[in-house]
Amino acid sequence: MYAFDYHRPKSLRQAVNLLAKVEDAKLLAGGHTLLPTMKQRLAAPANIIDLNGIAELAGIERKGRAVVIGAMTRHADVAESPIVQEAIPALAELADQIGDPQVRNRGTIGGSIANNDPAADYPAACIALGATIITNKRKVPAEEFFTGLFETALEEGEIITRVSFPLPSKAAYMKFPNPASRYALVGVFVAKRGAEVRVAVTGAGADGVFRVGAMEEALKARFSPKSLEGIKVPSKGLNSDIHADADYRAHLIGVMARRAVANATGKA
Amino acid sequence: MATVSMTVNGKHVSADVEPRTLLVQFLREHLRLTGTHVGCDTSQCGACVVHLDGRAVKSCTTLALTCDGAEVVTIEGLAKDGRLHPMQEAFRDNHGLQCGFCTPGMIMSAIDIVRRKGHDLDEHTIREELEGNICRCTGYHNIVRAVAAGAQAMKGGEPLKKAAE
Q1: Which of A57, A45, A181, A47 is nearest to A109 (CA)?
Q2: Neighbours of A266 (CB within 10 A)
Q3: With an 8 Å Cβ cutoff, are A3 and B56 in contact?
Q4: Which domain holds residue B43?
Q5: Domain-embedded: residue B163
Q6: What region holds the FAD-binding PCMH-type domain (chain A) (predicted)?
Q7: Are A203 and A242 within one domain?
Q8: Cys-Cys link to A160, which of A71, B50, B88, B133 (CB 3.0-4.6 A)?
């Protein structure tokens, strides 16, 4: 790891000011992607702004028909939160499947979303549930937030503060993890809210998380695993690597989607 | 250089460190607490697990400066008055180790499992929860037994430290 200057703001305002002032800065949340990347010298920021001292960025609350989660909330806290377990159990279950227990004790929802790893779990939940990403400057619908491989709509000087998840009527997340890394080879989040159904896929897309329109239409007609029978996801545009080729990933999307719908309807 | 202060195994410590110093380097190289090991250095193997404000974390993937003001417990901090912690004792009784390299991390993780999941742990739960700790001697079978026995032995001991909110 190359040397850097370290800053530890006590408030969001201080963090925003630092971000505007110091050159070549990276925000440090849980650090479980940034620090390994810096060790490999794939990243070498001149300045690190550590968000771990900002109490106002962590916490979970129910606000009407939504659950609002602070950006610095750890995966373990989302997984164990009675509020999340009651309101959106699929989201608590997703958080409980990220990495391993020690990673979940450090990793944060804001860090995961800002990084937009194509195999991360949270982006699928954000898209399927129709979340809103709240920053120090604005509110961004999840659909507009994830713009490509490790790319987001975040601008210079922008910090994620909270993520707001509207409550679904039914939802489930099914993941086929890479057995070594626990990242998703394929993860499918299915959510139904009113007449709206969304199917979001992570781990498979070469450009990151994406929706499967054909599945959504079929599930709108009837929300049952049977509705998905015969729907093939094209393997074009899917990741191929030593762990799984594109055809296998395409196949897994179908399997995981059917299991997710079965789980969401209580027929798993 | 920057100054970092924290409580390690109940003792207040303070030192000037380079900002890039990892918690594990701080523990091993500054405090000479070499019971915490560096295995993979990529947050996979769990040999470096310590408790940070009551929660198991991988100290190879945490900056020392992030822990300013925090309470850290390492494997050296478990034994009290010359008596091993019940989880350490259980690893010895059940021969839950072969070469011993992964053992400090296993024990720190095991105590965190008891904190989160309670004292009555079935084999499946233990194996799932040990996902972040790797033993390369093949020895999981006895490690799982040791964790189950240690969890039982911790009943009636001091109340488990609650994670910092």
Answers
A1: A57
A2: 8
A3: no
A4: 2-76
A5: no
A6: 1-170
A7: yes
A8: A71
Determine, for residues B132 and A102 on separate chains, whether the beta-carbon distance falls below 8 Å: yes
Contact residues for B5 (Cβ-Cβ < 8 A; gap 6+)? B12, B13, B14, B68, B69
ipTM at complex level: 0.93
Set of chain B residues whose Cβ sits within 8 Å of the Cβ of A180:
44
**Do residues A31 and A121 share a domain?**
no
Q: Which residues of A43-65 are buried (b: 16+ CB within 10 A; e: fewer)?
A: bebebbbbbbbbeebbbbeeeee
Of the residues B27, B57, B76, the one at which a domain ends:
B76
Q: Cβ A105–B66 below 8 Å, yes or no? A: no
- B33-76: per-residue pLDDT in tens? 999 999 999 899 999 999 999 999 999 999 999 999 999 999 99
Domain interval for residue A152: 57-264
Residues of A in contact with B68 (CB under 8 A): 8
Distance from CA of A151 to the nearest CA of B (A): 23
Do B44 and B90 fall into the same domain? no
SS3 A231: coil
Domain count, chain A: 2
Whether B61 maps to a domain, the answer reads yes
Task: Work out how many domains chain B is built from and give that number.
Answer: 2
Contact flag A99-B132 (C-beta cutoff 8 Å): yes
In terms of domains, do B115 and B140 share one?
yes
Element spanning A175, H or E: strand A170-177
Least Cα distance to A12 among A76, A75, A71, A73 occurs for A71
Q: What is the pLDDT of residues A95-119, one digit of tens each?
A: 999 999 999 999 999 999 999 999 9
Distance CA A101, CA A81 (A): 15
Task: Find the CATH number of the domain harbouring A165.
Answer: 3.30.465.10
Closest CB from B2, B52, B129 relative to A101: B129
B71 and B114 part of one domain: no
Q: What is the pLDDT of residues A168-213, one digit of tens each?
A: 999 999 999 998 888 999 999 999 999 999 999 999 999 999 999 9
For chain A, the C-alpha Rg in angstroms (whole number) is 18
